[in-house]
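User: Can you recover a sequence for this backbone? Please restate the input before giving your answer.

Assistant: Of course. Working from this structure:
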Protein backbone atom coordinates (compact mmCIF):
# COMPACT_ATOMS: atom_id res chain seq x y z
CA UNK A 1 0.00 0.00 0.00
CA UNK A 2 1.28 3.48 -0.87
CA UNK A 3 0.78 6.24 1.66
CA UNK A 4 1.94 9.85 2.01
CA UNK A 5 4.00 10.83 5.04
CA UNK A 6 6.11 13.81 6.10
CA UNK A 7 9.69 12.62 5.75
CA UNK A 8 11.55 15.72 6.84
CA UNK A 9 11.23 19.25 8.21
CA UNK A 10 12.80 22.31 6.61
CA UNK A 11 13.53 25.14 9.03
CA UNK A 12 13.10 28.63 7.57
CA UNK A 13 14.38 31.67 9.47
CA UNK A 14 12.37 34.87 9.04
CA UNK A 15 13.53 38.47 9.27
CA UNK A 16 12.59 38.60 12.96
CA UNK A 17 14.75 35.50 13.64
CA UNK A 18 11.60 33.49 14.36
CA UNK A 19 11.74 29.97 12.95
CA UNK A 20 8.83 28.36 11.17
CA UNK A 21 8.55 24.69 10.23
CA UNK A 22 7.55 23.72 6.72
CA UNK A 23 6.85 20.07 6.01
CA UNK A 24 7.12 18.19 2.77
CA UNK A 25 5.19 14.98 2.16
CA UNK A 26 6.08 12.31 -0.38
CA UNK A 27 4.66 8.89 -1.08
CA UNK A 28 6.23 5.89 0.61
CA UNK A 29 5.11 2.27 0.53
CA UNK A 30 3.62 0.68 3.62
CA UNK A 31 5.29 -2.72 4.11
CA UNK A 32 4.56 -3.01 7.82
CA UNK A 33 2.34 -6.08 7.44
CA UNK A 34 4.73 -8.16 5.35
CA UNK A 35 6.41 -11.34 6.57
CA UNK A 36 9.28 -10.97 4.07
CA UNK A 37 10.96 -7.89 2.60
CA UNK A 38 13.01 -8.12 -0.60
CA UNK A 39 15.63 -5.44 -1.26
CA UNK A 40 17.55 -4.65 -4.43
CA UNK A 41 21.08 -3.45 -3.58
CA UNK A 42 23.46 -1.68 -5.97
CA UNK A 43 25.64 1.39 -6.25
CA UNK A 44 28.15 3.52 -8.16
CA UNK A 45 25.64 3.61 -10.95
CA UNK A 46 24.92 7.13 -12.23
CA UNK A 47 26.84 7.42 -15.49
CA UNK A 48 23.94 7.54 -17.94
CA UNK A 49 25.98 5.23 -20.18
CA UNK A 50 25.20 1.86 -21.73
CA UNK A 51 26.55 -0.13 -18.78
CA UNK A 52 24.12 1.51 -16.37
CA UNK A 53 21.17 0.79 -18.67
CA UNK A 54 22.23 -2.82 -19.11
CA UNK A 55 22.57 -3.45 -15.37
CA UNK A 56 19.26 -1.68 -14.80
CA UNK A 57 17.48 -3.97 -17.26
CA UNK A 58 18.96 -7.00 -15.53
CA UNK A 59 17.89 -5.67 -12.12
CA UNK A 60 14.36 -5.00 -13.32
CA UNK A 61 13.92 -8.45 -14.83
CA UNK A 62 15.27 -10.08 -11.68
CA UNK A 63 13.11 -7.94 -9.40
CA UNK A 64 10.02 -8.63 -11.45
CA UNK A 65 10.67 -12.35 -10.98
CA UNK A 66 11.58 -12.16 -7.29
CA UNK A 67 9.11 -9.53 -6.10
CA UNK A 68 11.46 -6.78 -4.91
CA UNK A 69 9.90 -4.25 -2.54
CA UNK A 70 12.48 -1.45 -2.67
CA UNK A 71 16.06 -0.57 -3.59
CA UNK A 72 18.84 0.66 -1.36
CA UNK A 73 21.46 2.54 -3.37
CA UNK A 74 25.00 2.77 -2.02
CA UNK A 75 25.91 6.14 -3.53
CA UNK A 76 27.46 7.79 -6.58
CA UNK A 77 24.15 8.02 -8.38
CA UNK A 78 25.13 11.18 -10.30
CA UNK A 79 28.63 10.99 -11.79
CA UNK A 80 30.96 12.87 -11.98
CA UNK A 81 30.06 15.91 -9.93
CA UNK A 82 26.48 15.52 -8.82
CA UNK A 83 23.99 18.08 -10.14
CA UNK A 84 25.79 20.91 -11.92
CA UNK A 85 23.70 24.10 -11.83
CA UNK A 86 25.03 26.63 -14.31
CA UNK A 87 21.93 28.66 -15.21
CA UNK A 88 20.89 31.09 -12.47
CA UNK A 89 19.33 33.86 -14.54
CA UNK A 90 16.11 31.99 -15.34
CA UNK A 91 14.20 29.82 -12.88
CA UNK A 92 12.59 27.80 -15.69
CA UNK A 93 15.88 27.22 -17.50
CA UNK A 94 17.59 26.26 -14.23
CA UNK A 95 14.81 23.80 -13.41
CA UNK A 96 15.05 22.17 -16.84
CA UNK A 97 18.84 21.95 -16.55
CA UNK A 98 18.57 20.14 -13.21
CA UNK A 99 15.76 17.81 -14.27
CA UNK A 100 17.62 16.75 -17.40
CA UNK A 101 20.58 15.58 -15.31
CA UNK A 102 18.31 13.47 -13.12
CA UNK A 103 16.57 12.16 -16.25
CA UNK A 104 19.82 11.12 -17.89
CA UNK A 105 21.41 9.40 -14.91
CA UNK A 106 18.44 8.17 -12.91
CA UNK A 107 14.93 8.42 -14.36
CA UNK A 108 15.57 7.01 -17.85
CA UNK A 109 17.81 4.12 -16.75
CA UNK A 110 15.30 3.02 -14.06
CA UNK A 111 12.03 3.98 -15.75
CA UNK A 112 10.89 0.35 -16.00
CA UNK A 113 10.72 0.11 -12.20
CA UNK A 114 7.64 2.33 -12.31
CA UNK A 115 5.84 -0.85 -13.39
CA UNK A 116 6.46 -2.37 -9.93
CA UNK A 117 3.73 -1.00 -7.61
CA UNK A 118 5.10 1.06 -4.76
CA UNK A 119 8.76 0.50 -5.65
CA UNK A 120 11.16 3.25 -4.45
CA UNK A 121 14.91 3.84 -4.60
CA UNK A 122 16.28 4.91 -1.21
CA UNK A 123 19.55 6.76 -1.68
CA UNK A 124 22.74 7.12 0.36
CA UNK A 125 25.05 9.80 -0.98
CA UNK A 126 28.50 9.12 -2.41
CA UNK A 127 31.43 11.48 -2.82
CA UNK A 128 30.63 12.11 -6.51
CA UNK A 129 27.05 13.15 -5.75
CA UNK A 130 27.67 16.59 -4.24
CA UNK A 131 30.92 17.90 -5.65
CA UNK A 132 29.01 20.94 -6.87
CA UNK A 133 27.57 21.46 -3.37
CA UNK A 134 23.86 21.05 -4.19
CA UNK A 135 22.79 18.77 -1.36
CA UNK A 136 19.47 20.58 -0.93
CA UNK A 137 18.67 19.91 -4.59
CA UNK A 138 19.29 16.19 -4.07
CA UNK A 139 16.86 16.03 -1.16
CA UNK A 140 14.28 18.32 -2.79
CA UNK A 141 14.16 16.08 -5.86
CA UNK A 142 12.24 13.51 -3.78
CA UNK A 143 9.23 15.83 -4.22
CA UNK A 144 9.46 15.63 -8.01
CA UNK A 145 10.17 11.93 -8.58
CA UNK A 146 8.06 8.85 -8.15
CA UNK A 147 11.18 6.72 -7.64
CA UNK A 148 13.90 8.81 -5.93
CA UNK A 149 13.87 9.04 -2.12
CA UNK A 150 16.52 10.97 -0.19
CA UNK A 151 15.08 12.71 2.87
CA UNK A 152 18.36 13.55 4.66
CA UNK A 153 22.05 12.72 5.14
CA UNK A 154 21.08 10.06 7.71
CA UNK A 155 17.61 8.53 7.88
CA UNK A 156 15.65 5.36 8.59
CA UNK A 157 13.52 4.00 5.76
CA UNK A 158 9.87 4.34 6.86
CA UNK A 159 7.04 1.86 6.38
CA UNK A 160 8.95 -1.33 7.25
CA UNK A 161 7.83 -4.13 9.61
CA UNK A 162 8.81 -3.70 13.26
CA UNK A 163 11.24 -6.62 12.96
CA UNK A 164 13.35 -4.79 10.33
CA UNK A 165 15.30 -1.53 10.50
CA UNK A 166 17.11 -0.19 7.43
CA UNK A 167 19.21 2.90 8.10
CA UNK A 168 20.97 5.13 5.56
CA UNK A 169 24.14 6.89 6.66
CA UNK A 170 26.43 9.49 5.11
CA UNK A 171 29.97 8.17 5.36
CA UNK A 172 32.18 10.81 3.79
CA UNK A 173 35.40 11.50 5.69
CA UNK A 174 36.95 13.47 2.82
CA UNK A 175 34.91 15.84 0.64
CA UNK A 176 32.49 17.23 3.23
CA UNK A 177 33.76 15.36 6.32
CA UNK A 178 30.24 14.85 7.60
CA UNK A 179 31.04 11.57 9.32
CA UNK A 180 32.11 12.65 12.79
CA UNK A 181 31.48 11.96 16.45
CA UNK A 182 28.26 13.93 16.64
CA UNK A 183 26.82 12.13 13.59
CA UNK A 184 27.73 8.76 15.13
CA UNK A 185 26.15 9.78 18.46
CA UNK A 186 22.95 10.74 16.63
CA UNK A 187 22.90 7.46 14.71
CA UNK A 188 23.33 5.49 17.94
CA UNK A 189 20.06 6.95 19.21
CA UNK A 190 18.31 5.11 16.38
CA UNK A 191 20.41 1.99 15.93
CA UNK A 192 20.94 1.24 19.63
CA UNK A 193 17.24 1.68 20.40
CA UNK A 194 16.07 -1.65 21.81
CA UNK A 195 12.32 -1.17 21.60
CA UNK A 196 12.37 -4.35 19.53
CA UNK A 197 15.60 -6.18 20.40
CA UNK A 198 14.87 -8.97 17.90
CA UNK A 199 14.74 -6.79 14.81
CA UNK A 200 17.22 -7.00 11.97
CA UNK A 201 19.49 -3.95 11.74
CA UNK A 202 20.73 -3.25 8.22
CA UNK A 203 22.76 -0.15 7.40
CA UNK A 204 23.75 1.24 4.00
CA UNK A 205 26.15 3.99 3.00
CA UNK A 206 28.89 4.70 0.49
CA UNK A 207 32.32 4.12 2.03
CA UNK A 208 33.08 0.55 3.15
CA UNK A 209 34.80 -0.28 6.41
CA UNK A 210 36.58 -3.20 4.74
CA UNK A 211 37.14 -4.06 1.09
CA UNK A 212 39.61 -5.99 -1.04
CA UNK A 213 39.65 -3.95 -4.24
CA UNK A 214 39.46 -0.32 -5.34
CA UNK A 215 40.36 2.09 -2.46
CA UNK A 216 41.52 -0.84 -0.29
CA UNK A 217 43.08 0.39 2.93
CA UNK A 218 43.22 4.08 1.99
CA UNK A 219 42.82 6.93 4.47
CA UNK A 220 39.09 7.30 3.95
CA UNK A 221 38.51 3.61 4.61
CA UNK A 222 40.58 3.69 7.79
CA UNK A 223 38.74 6.76 9.06
CA UNK A 224 35.35 5.28 8.16
CA UNK A 225 36.26 2.08 10.00
CA UNK A 226 37.37 4.02 13.08
CA UNK A 227 34.08 5.95 13.15
CA UNK A 228 31.71 3.08 12.41
CA UNK A 229 32.95 -0.41 13.22
CA UNK A 230 33.22 -0.43 17.02
CA UNK A 231 31.37 2.79 17.99
CA UNK A 232 28.27 2.04 15.89
CA UNK A 233 28.09 -1.38 14.27
CA UNK A 234 29.39 -3.43 17.17
CA UNK A 235 27.94 -1.17 19.87
CA UNK A 236 24.43 -1.31 18.38
CA UNK A 237 24.43 -4.87 17.08
CA UNK A 238 24.22 -4.02 13.37
CA UNK A 239 23.89 -7.22 11.36
CA UNK A 240 24.95 -6.08 7.88
CA UNK A 241 26.50 -3.00 6.30
CA UNK A 242 26.04 -2.40 2.55
CA UNK A 243 28.46 -0.01 0.85
CA UNK A 244 29.79 1.00 -2.56
CA UNK A 245 32.72 3.27 -3.49
CA UNK A 246 34.83 0.27 -4.49
CA UNK A 247 33.72 -0.73 -7.99
CA UNK A 248 33.14 -4.44 -7.52
CA UNK A 249 30.92 -6.89 -5.63
CA UNK A 250 32.13 -8.50 -2.41
CA UNK A 251 31.01 -10.19 0.77
CA UNK A 252 33.27 -10.09 3.81
CA UNK A 253 32.44 -11.34 7.28
CA UNK A 254 33.83 -9.00 9.92
CA UNK A 255 33.66 -9.40 13.68
CA UNK A 256 30.02 -8.92 14.60
CA UNK A 257 28.58 -7.99 11.19
CA UNK A 258 28.53 -8.76 7.48
CA UNK A 259 30.21 -6.25 5.11
CA UNK A 260 28.73 -6.21 1.60
CA UNK A 261 30.08 -4.11 -1.27
CA UNK A 262 27.86 -3.37 -4.22
CA UNK A 263 29.67 -0.81 -6.36
CA UNK A 264 29.38 -2.40 -9.79
CA UNK A 265 26.18 -0.75 -11.03
CA UNK A 266 27.92 1.03 -13.92
CA UNK A 267 31.68 0.76 -13.39
CA UNK A 268 34.23 -1.88 -12.45
CA UNK A 269 37.75 -1.12 -11.22
CA UNK A 270 40.68 -2.80 -9.54
CA UNK A 271 41.71 -6.32 -8.60
CA UNK A 272 41.02 -8.64 -5.70
CA UNK A 273 43.57 -8.17 -2.91
CA UNK A 274 42.17 -9.52 0.37
CA UNK A 275 43.88 -8.15 3.44
CA UNK A 276 45.83 -10.51 5.67
CA UNK A 277 45.94 -7.98 8.50
CA UNK A 278 42.23 -7.44 9.17
CA UNK A 279 39.89 -9.77 11.12
CA UNK A 280 37.68 -10.60 8.15
CA UNK A 281 36.84 -13.57 5.98
CA UNK A 282 36.24 -12.99 2.29
CA UNK A 283 33.32 -15.11 1.10
CA UNK A 284 32.84 -13.74 -2.40
CA UNK A 285 34.37 -11.29 -4.88
CA UNK A 286 33.33 -10.37 -8.44
CA UNK A 287 34.76 -7.76 -10.76
CA UNK A 288 31.78 -8.04 -13.09
CA UNK A 289 28.93 -5.53 -13.42
CA UNK A 290 26.12 -6.56 -11.13
CA UNK A 291 23.88 -6.18 -8.09
CA UNK A 292 22.43 -8.08 -5.13
CA UNK A 293 19.00 -9.18 -3.96
CA UNK A 294 18.60 -9.36 -0.18
CA UNK A 295 15.59 -11.23 1.19
CA UNK A 296 14.83 -10.83 4.90
CA UNK A 297 12.20 -12.40 7.11
CA UNK A 298 11.81 -12.47 10.88
CA UNK A 299 14.36 -15.26 11.36
CA UNK A 300 16.67 -15.32 8.34
CA UNK A 301 18.54 -13.20 5.81
CA UNK A 302 19.48 -14.33 2.33
CA UNK A 303 21.87 -12.49 -0.01
CA UNK A 304 22.10 -13.37 -3.70
CA UNK A 305 24.72 -11.71 -5.92
CA UNK A 306 24.18 -11.40 -9.67
CA UNK A 307 26.69 -10.78 -12.45
CA UNK A 308 25.55 -9.10 -15.66
CA UNK A 309 27.94 -10.71 -18.09
CA UNK A 310 29.38 -9.18 -21.28
CA UNK A 311 28.60 -5.65 -20.07
CA UNK A 312 30.70 -2.66 -21.12
CA UNK A 313 30.52 0.76 -19.52
CA UNK A 314 30.24 2.66 -22.80
CA UNK A 315 29.01 1.84 -26.28
CA UNK A 316 25.65 0.80 -27.65
CA UNK A 317 23.09 -0.44 -25.17
CA UNK A 318 21.96 -4.01 -25.76
CA UNK A 319 19.59 -5.63 -23.25
CA UNK A 320 21.09 -8.65 -21.48
CA UNK A 321 19.75 -12.06 -22.35
CA UNK A 322 18.48 -14.29 -19.58
CA UNK A 323 21.68 -16.35 -19.80
CA UNK A 324 23.75 -13.21 -19.13
CA UNK A 325 22.02 -12.47 -15.80
CA UNK A 326 23.83 -14.99 -13.63
CA UNK A 327 23.34 -15.64 -9.92
CA UNK A 328 26.93 -16.24 -8.88
CA UNK A 329 26.73 -16.41 -5.09
CA UNK A 330 24.22 -17.00 -2.30
CA UNK A 331 24.57 -16.67 1.47
CA UNK A 332 21.92 -17.45 4.05
CA UNK A 333 22.10 -16.93 7.77
CA UNK A 334 20.24 -16.46 11.02
CA UNK A 335 21.27 -13.93 13.66
CA UNK A 336 23.47 -16.62 15.19
CA UNK A 337 25.45 -16.87 11.92
CA UNK A 338 26.12 -13.14 11.59
CA UNK A 339 29.59 -11.69 12.07
CA UNK A 340 31.54 -14.89 12.61
CA UNK A 341 34.62 -14.97 10.34
CA UNK A 342 35.39 -18.54 11.43
CA UNK A 343 31.87 -19.76 10.67
CA UNK A 344 31.00 -21.76 7.57
CA UNK A 345 27.49 -20.77 6.61
CA UNK A 346 25.13 -23.53 5.50
CA UNK A 347 24.14 -23.69 1.86
CA UNK A 348 21.04 -21.73 0.92
CA UNK A 349 17.99 -23.88 0.21
Amino acid sequence: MVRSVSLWIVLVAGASAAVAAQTRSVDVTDLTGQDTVVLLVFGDSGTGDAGQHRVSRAMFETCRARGCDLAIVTGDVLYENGVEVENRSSADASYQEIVEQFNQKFERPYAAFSQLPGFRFWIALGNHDYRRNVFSTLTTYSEFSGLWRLPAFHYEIPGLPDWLQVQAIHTDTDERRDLNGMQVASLKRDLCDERNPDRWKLVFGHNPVYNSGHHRGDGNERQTRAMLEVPLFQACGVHAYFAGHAHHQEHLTATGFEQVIQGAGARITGSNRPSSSTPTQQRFFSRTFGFAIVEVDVDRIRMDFYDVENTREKGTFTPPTQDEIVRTYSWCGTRADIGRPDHTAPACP
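That completes the design. The two ends are 30 Å apart (CA to CA).
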